[in-house]
Design a protein that fits this description.
39% of the residues lie in helices and 30% in strands. By secondary structure, the protein is an alpha+beta fold. The protein is flat, with a radius of gyration of 19 Å.
């Protein structure tokens, strides 16, 4: 009898995890459809990265015709000799809204210790993606915070 109760409990754990994952994927897809329904092609937003990593953590991302056009960040304090490389790294690591959706989708489809995703109530895009990849590994956590969304004309 104890074995049966144990197996049933184990089954419930696995089912509840997969149902939670399905619910999170459903929420992602619902919000992605909401975002796409607005058909916004030109916008700017701020991306702040919180992590144990080097480089600029905050940047403004400018998107034109759904393509990342430019990225602005505070260049104060960076060695002028390396500023072009830093600009390239910052540009390549900056997200469009579609990039943020893709990141959230990727994280929901892999095993991570912790994942929190929040969405804009009006437009549906992610406003926060916080992940801890491995529970007992220090300094692997990363949080992306997206703010100051503005539609450009």
């Amino acid at each position: 009898m104890k074995k049966l109760v144990f197996l049933f409990s184990l089954f419930l754990v696995f089912v509840s995890c997969s149902l939670d994952d399905e619910g999170a994927l459903d929420e992602l897809n619902k919000n992605r459809r909401l975002w796409q329904s607005y058909q916004i092609k030109d916008y700017t937003w701020n991306q702040h990265i919180s992590c144990f990593c080097a480089g600029p953590r905050e940047r403004d991302v400018f998107v034109v015709n759904l393509i990342k056009d430019s990225v602005a960040f505070d260049e104060t304090g960076f060695d002028p000799e390396y500023i072009e490389e830093i600009r390239e790294i910052v540009f390549n690591s900056s997200h469009t809204i579609e990039d943020a959706f893709n990141l959230a989708d990727d994280l929901l489809n892999r095993e991570v210790a912790f994942l929190e995703i929040e969405y804009d109530k009006i437009y549906g895009f992610p406003t926060l993606i916080s992940v801890d990849y491995v529970e007992n590994i220090a300094d692997d956590e990363i949080t992306h915070i997206y703010t100051n969304f503005e539609i450009m004309n």
